[in-house]
Amino acid sequence: MMRNFFKTALRNIVRNKSFAAINVVGLAIGIAACILIFLIVFHEYSFDRFERDGDKLYRVVMDMKFSGNAGHSAAVPAPLANAIQQEVTGVEKTIPLMQFQGDATIKVSVPKAGSSDPVVYKKQPEVIFTSPDYFSALSYKWLAGSAATLQKPFAVVLTESRAKQYFPSTAIENIPGKEIIYDDTMRVTVSGIVKDLSQNTFFSYKEFVSYATIFNTSLKHNFMMDVWDDWMAYSQLFIRLSNGTSVTQTETQLAGLLKKYNKNANKDDKNTMSFRLQPLNDVHFNENYQGFGKLIAHKTSLYGLMAIAVFLLILGCINFINLTTAQSSQRAKEIGIRKTMGSSRKQIVLQFLGETLFLTAIASVLSLIFIPFLVQAFKEYLPEGFHYSFIGQPLILVFVVLLTFVVSFLAGFYPALVLSGYKPVLVLKSQVFVESHQTQKAWLRKVLTVFQFSIAQFFVIATVMVGKQIHYTLNKDLGFKKDAIISFDVPRDTAKSNRSVLLNAINDIPGVQMVSNGFLPPAVEGAAFTDILYVDGKNEVKTDVQLRYGDPNYLPLYNIKMLAGRNVTASDTIKEFVINEAYARFLGFQNPADALNKQLVFNKKNIPIVGVMNDFNMQSLHAKIGPMVFGALDDRSFFFHVALRPQIAGQHTWQTTIKEIEKQFRKVYPDKDFDYSFFDEKIAAFYKNEKNISGLLTWATGLSILISSLGLLGLIMYTTFARTKEIGIRKVLGATAAQIVGILSKDFVKLIVIAFLISIPAAWWAANKWLQDFAYRTEMSWWVFAISGLFMIVVALVTISFQSVKAAMANPVRSLRTE
């Protein structure tokens, strides 16, 4: 029987090559997109699924309010780890993760032929201070040494890859005992080697310095190991709860620690702080608690990807249903004869489901061929560390097989029911019944076609709206100059005299318009807040204010305009402030000049307001403009900002100028790397996620239009075939080719217009909801919908014209002879 099914299916495919090709390609595109998205989602959800007792592992995080503004932090005060170990019950393991500060320039003492100089590795990533408990919570394989070796200070455990990098000619078992020097000051001894973790994990660290080292060096002060009311992004903490210990019990004890050691943590309703436990399986997805240097997967984006996969798959299935039911009249006699010969309806249903499975299997094989090309096309949007292997990841093949059967059932079940429902007596007596039956089912094809193009239209509108918002964000006046400005930093332990020498040298370069030494640029991805108090008689106004500082050239270099007063004067310490207009309004001054000479309390000192500057966006357009102060602080100004002179078209003066800046930099800091960035590129990087969404929507739109157009092409091919004689008669009676094309196209254009009208509310709601995430956003313009609708009508007309024009130009004599 299976052999008969196979032969019948093959004959039917050969007989209807065009329709089979459309079905296979439509399904293949949908399946390929579905497989790729499955690979992405599988990659993201595979993080940290391998740890022993992973359901008992939690990261301690903080929720807080500052002046009523909610905040979240993955970092915690450094002394919390020891306090938990000594005072909290029900905690089995305490795992501090203290990220190495600075550049982590590592010197490895490895003898070189003819030289005693050590090999220098600069800016090594993934270096942490931690305790032996770290290794008891993770499945590391020890190649040398043990976790107990980290109990002593000045010990380090390396992963195998890092050990081979540092000591390439030494056997693994001989590496323990070797010495490593961190930042020219801290000497540690290798005490163990572990095999690198092969699984996807948050814990991607490569070097593990003993936690006890911090307390035996000046790092104790740098890491603020005794400070409870402040913390750094470098300081994170994981714990593993004992059996029977609940999260609520532990969080209650943590609240007690906070109350004991930081009495001002919860002084009023607008200023609060609390510790909470974040489950390990939430660490990779929760943007509120993004760890230092760690990438976060956005669940909303993953859900969007899955929705795109489902829609593309549905579009392919709709094509199959439409074309199969449209062709049902051509197989009516076959079904009648089969039933007359004794075939049951069940057998006929299985026959057609088998044919669908055969076509879907071909589509699945074709989709696997598409995958490498899709991976290449989507490489910008793939998560870091993403890879796939059909051999090394058998779950992928299992997914493809299951998907093939599911798609076969979804695409083939309804057509099989329709075809198997024909009554053999009526079918063999007359074709009229079948045609009537076809007419009754035509409404379904129209509904499905409308649904297809509604999805495609939705994607088109969404793509245009996202592109419009991105254009708005990149071209909006942010309140400062962003073009032709580069910035770079210098070592934080450098002397002020060295910075002055470099400043003067850069200032003398002909291609430099202006140079400033200061803090971060006006707009950054994160935030730098400080507490400032304003006393107005008996009233005290305290709030978190964004801080910027630099020399007097900082504001004019970025073309930040003054509304009242003057710029700051050069100073080693902050002695006066320029505030922004938003802060002036917050303090109650409607006229900027009224804020001049008022006193702000900063670091227990009274600082006068000497100027009010124009508001500018300090972060991306997702955030509103808030209070800001700017002061002169030369002692901590480790960032250089350089405005380049305008570049003449066709010349490369900027490259020449930057090379000269690098030359001067290396004269002052010969052992340091010169890493610069253009300010406008940093601004553009704020919207990387939005650009990724735009790119994915563009791909989804293109694929949905392609699949829908293939289905439309198939339907117009069937329509022209079924109306061949009608077209011939109309031409004989004098109809022009244009009139015939209009007749054939009219019904389909109506369906596209209906699809457009249906998609408008859904697209408007989705785009409006997405735009709510921006504090400053573009308008929902009517022309976006008009252009999108017109575009889809043009696409539909072009698709229809391929076949309708051919039919309209055909010889009517041949048309009338068609049986």
Task: Write the SSE topology.
Blueprint: H1 2-15, H2 17-45, E1 57-66, E2 69-73, H3 80-87, E3 91-99, E4 106-108, E5 119-121, E6 127-130, H4 133-137, E7 142-144, E8 155-159, H5 160-166, E9 179-182, E10 186-194, E11 207-210, H6 219-222, E12 235-241, H7 247-261, E13 272-279, H8 280-283, H9 299-326, H10 332-340, H11 345-377, H12 394-420, H13 424-429, H14 432-475, E14 485-489, H15 496-507, E15 512-518, E16 529-536, E17 539-549, H16 554-557, E18 562-565, E19 577-580, H17 581-586, E20 599-602, E21 605-613, E22 628-631, E23 639-644, H18 653-668, E24 677-678, H19 679-685, H20 688-722, H21 724-732, H22 737-771, H23 782-808, H24 812-817
Parallel strand pairs: 6-11, 8-10, 17-22, 19-21
Antiparallel strand pairs: 1-2, 1-12, 1-13, 3-6, 3-12, 4-5, 4-9, 7-10, 8-11, 9-10, 14-23, 14-24, 15-23, 16-17, 16-20, 18-21, 19-22, 20-21
Helix pairs in contact: 1-11, 2-9, 2-11, 2-12, 2-20, 9-12, 9-14, 9-20, 11-12, 14-20, 14-22, 14-23, 15-18, 20-23, 22-23
End-to-end separation in angstroms reads 33 Å
Please, what is the average pLDDT?
83
List the total number of helices: 24
Fraction of residues in H or I helices = 40-55%
Oligomer: single chain
Low-confidence stretches: 431-438
Q: What Rg do the Cα atoms give?
A: 35 Å
> Percent of residues in beta strands?
15-25%
Q: For the report, how would you describe the main beta sheet?
A: 13 strands, mixed
Q: What structural category arises from helix and sheet content?
A: alpha+beta
Shape: globular
Number-wise, the strands total: 24
